[in-house]
Every structure is written in C-alpha cells, then in structure tokens.
Amino acid sequence: MLTLIYFILVLGLIVLVHEFGHFIFAKMFGVYVYEFSIGMGPKIFGTKPKKGKTAYNIRALPIGGFVQLAGEDATEEDKDVPKGAHLYEKPIWQRFLIMFFGAGNNFILAFLLLFFIGVFHGAPSMDPIITNLDESGAMYASGLQVGDEILSINGNSISTSDDVKVYLTLESIEEEAKETTIVVKRNDEKLTYKVTPIKEYDKEAKKDTYKFGIIFDNEELEHGFISSIRYAKNKFGAFTKQMIVTFKYLFAGKLGLKDMSGPVGIYSIVGDAAKEDTLLNLTSLTALLCINVGFLNLIPFPAFDGGRILFLLIEKIKGKPINPKVETAVNTVGFILLMILVLVVTVSDIGKLMK
To answer: Is residue 305 within 8 Å of 297, Cβ to Cβ?
Structure first.
C-alpha cells in the first residue's frame, strides 16, 4: 500500500510540475486554457472558479496529465475564445517557451531536489576513484587497485562514479561476457587493463549477470551551499549523460524493449527505492525520473513536446506555418504509436514481475 502511495506522490509531482510549466507560460502569454488536469481517464474531482476560464481536475489514472490550450489544433477555431488567445495566434518564440517549459520545469525541479539532498543529507564525492574492490571479483584479479581513478571504459570518457556504474551496467547485460578495456590513472601514470566480468546468477532477477566487483563507498559527505550546488550540477549532468548513453545503446541495438520500463516498471522501482533510507532514495529517484521525463519529452517525435518544437523550427525556417491538417495527422499517428509502445513495455514489465 505504501508503495502505491509513494508511486502516486512521485509521479503526481513530476506530472504536476511538467504541466504547470506549460500552464504558467500559456497564462503569461495570454493563451486561453480550457483545462489543467493531473492524471488521465475519468474525472474524480474538479473545480472551476466562477470568474475563471480554466477547469482544474484530478483524474482517475495517475499515469500522466495534460493542459488543454485553445488553438493547439489550428484546424479548429473556438468562437467563444477571445481573438488573439489561441495558441496558433501567438509568435513562434512564445509558443516555443510554452512547449519547452514542461520539460524545463522538470529539469529545474530535478536540480532543486539534488541541491536539497546536498543541503540536508550532505554531498557525497562523485569522483570516479575506486574505494573498494571485491577480492573475488574480476577487477581485482585484473590488477586494478583501490585509489585508481578511472579515466575511460571501452573508449568512453569517464567523469563521475555514476558514469562508471552506467557503462559497467550496460556491459554486464550482454548475453555473453565480453572483455572490457579500462584506463586508469595511478600516481600520475595512465594504465590500461583488460577485464572480463565474472558470470553470476542473480536470484532476484532470475537471470545470469556479469559482475566486475567494484564498489564506490561515498561515506564522506561535504556540507554547505557551494558543495550542494556542485553536487547538484554533477549529479544532474550524470543523470543526463545516463539518458543519452542509454538512447545511444538503444539505437545501436545493444538494448531492446525488454530493457525499458513503463508505469509498472516505475512502480516496482519506487517500491525498491522506499525499502531503505526512504526519503533520500525517493528524492534521488524523483530527480532521475524528472530528468528522464524532460529528456523524453524533448525528443523530436510527434505527440511529444519536442515534436511540436520541431514543427515550430520548420515553420521558422519556411517562414510560414505547416499545413494544420498535416501537423494534426502526424501528431495523431505519433500518439497512437506512443500508446502502443507504452502497452508493449507495460506487458513486458508485468512479465518481469511475474517471473
């Protein structure tokens, strides 16, 4: 039950902040807003101020939300909306900010959450320096030592301990163990090691995994405003890089749909995060999901904010709007494909939980 509550709170906060970004900039630029809703599906609660234009609703399914703006579909014109208050009547730069600041607000919230972690919990070091090695692990056997600073993994530059975890995790999901090239700095000298992870059966995941045997113990915490800002900046950058690297592996075919997570997968992750140090883990997870949502929404795919921004850029280059019927048709097809993807990923998530 607690997991469900945490799930609703985390997802609700992310959606609320995202949609509020669209909402506040639409209001700022005088766009007529029909509805501001958290959740999807049937309305379970709603209010509309007597003198207000906007209905504020909470809907049954806590898996999204939306802001309904007048003039999103340029093929329709609502005569009850004042002239100049339709979205398509606004300058390109205003429409761009309205579309961008859903994701923009997610990025701002993520940075603030990470900053608060630094302030109230303390800022751990993110230097990619090995602090512990499993003596039965592959890295120890290859000659790597505690105190080595990791510079690159398979030619990929390393800046933080999070980078190390991301690249080693991606290497460890391969069906066969592959030799991994790791470059480190030791006493101002660059050294190169070839490491082949050790195959182990993960009882919880019920599948074979490959372990490198590296541990980062970030027990020493720094406190203070500057340390918190630095931690938020580095962690935000690490989370963003994680998204970029993951997409790179997806497009390269090294990751598939089975490695993606939808609402059910997120629910499971939230439950795991709440098991220990609940507030800290959920705060960090919320920041990560905020960045993921913001990043995904800016992908130039139809039905995403990034797709709408792409149409704005094309309009700017062409000097005239795209045919509204074409834009509506493309966004509709994109939305259908997106729903199919969500369905496929959700079925996959359920399958993982039932194993």
So the answer is: yes
